[in-house]
Amino acid sequence: ALKKAMALEPASEAASTAEWLNHLGNAIEAPQLGRPWYRSTFVLLILAFAVLFVLVHLLLLARALSKVHASDPALLLLPVKAFGGAAAVGLFAVSIHKLSGGGGAS
Questions:
Q1: pTM
Q2: Is there a contact between 4 and 23 (Cβ–Cβ < 8 Å)?
């Protein structure tokens, strides 16, 4: 259908613009022939490299964190405490805002 639409030019005497657009629309809406993306060897190769990349970096992260934990076990809890403190401050600010009547329509 696409070859037929490309063969017909809108300016030709044999076809009107409407007929040309109709053929072009049919070509666009025609089902695609081909296999799914996950059957492509190239796509699977890229996915395999991505998975390998993530696994290697997870192993490196685990190794680094185990060394940090071995040197000072309490050190790994500092980010948890910091985010917990930030969440508590945020909750306090939101509650003050709501109690002062600035909460809008609820």
A1: 0.47
A2: yes
